[in-house]
Amino acid sequence: MHRTQSSEAMIFLSGLAGILLVLTAEAKVGKSSQGKYCSETEECLLFDLICETDSYELRHYSSVKWVSTNETGYIMDFALMRAFKRLFGYITGQNMQGKKIEMTAPVVVKVIDQKSFWEERVFRMSFLLPSEHQMTPPKPTDDKVFIQEWPEMKVYVKSYGGWMTSLSDKMKASSLCSSLDSAGSQYNKEYHYAVGYDSPMKLFNRHNEVWLVAEGDPECSSSSEEEYSFFN
C-alpha cells in the first residue's frame, strides 16, 4: 500500500516538474500578443522590464536557445544578407529532421566594436528558436550554422524606428553608450547587439533596438523607476 502511494507521489511530482518546465519555456519564448513589438510572428522573446529612463531601458532576459551563424565583412549590411540566407535555409528545412520551423522575433546580431573603419569584423546573426524547439532543436545540416544557448542577462536597451542599417545602428549604439557613461553605468564595451523585429516587407512602424550587456550592479540612474514584469 505504501509502495503504491509512493509510486503515485513520484508520478505526480514528475508530472508537476514537466508542467513547470513547460511554463518556464513559455515564459522565455511566448505568444507575440504578450510582446509590445512583435506583430509579424506567432512567438517572440519575452523579458522583464527592471526600470527605464527617458534614454534607455534596463531589461532582464532568461536563458534561451538560438540558431546562429557567423559572417565576416567590413560593412554589416552586406554581411547580414549572407547570414540571413543561411539561417533562413535552416528554418525552411535544412536541418537533420527536415523540419520547417516558425520564424520568431527578434533577429539579433552581435556586433564587435570597430577599432578602425577598415577593420574586417565577424558579425553573428541569431534567430530565436520557438518554444517547441527550445529543449531539443533540430541539428543544422550546414556546418556554418550552429545552436547556442545564451545565459540569462541584463541589458541596457535603446529603441528606434525606421530601418536597421550600419549607420543607424552605429549612431544609436554611440548614443546609448554616451547616456550610460553620463550615468556612470557599467557595461560591456567590446560588443553590442543590433536587434530587429520586422521583416523587410513591413514599411511603416518598424521597431529596432540596441542592446548593451550590463555589468556590475546595473540600475537606471536618475530614472522614474518602474519595476514590473513584462508578463503582467
UniProtKB/TrEMBL annotation:
<comment type="subunit">
    <text>Monomer.</text>
</comment>
<dbReference type="InterPro" id="IPR006917">
    <property type="entry name" value="SOUL_heme-bd"/>
</dbReference>
<feature type="signal peptide">
    <location>
        <begin position="1"/>
        <end position="27"/>
    </location>
</feature>
<protein>
    <recommendedName>
        <fullName>Heme-binding protein 1</fullName>
    </recommendedName>
</protein>
<keyword id="KW-0963">Cytoplasm</keyword>
<dbReference type="InterPro" id="IPR011256">
    <property type="entry name" value="Reg_factor_effector_dom_sf"/>
</dbReference>
<comment type="similarity">
    <text>Belongs to the HEBP family.</text>
</comment>
<keyword id="KW-0732">Signal</keyword>
<dbReference type="GO" id="GO:0020037">
    <property type="term" value="F:heme binding"/>
</dbReference>
<dbReference type="Pfam" id="PF04832">
    <property type="entry name" value="SOUL"/>
</dbReference>
<dbReference type="GO" id="GO:0005737">
    <property type="term" value="C:cytoplasm"/>
</dbReference>
<comment type="function">
    <text>May bind free porphyrinogens that may be present in the cell and thus facilitate removal of these potentially toxic compound. Binds with a high affinity to one molecule of heme or porphyrins. It binds metalloporphyrins, free porphyrins and N-methylprotoporphyrin with similar affinities.</text>
</comment>
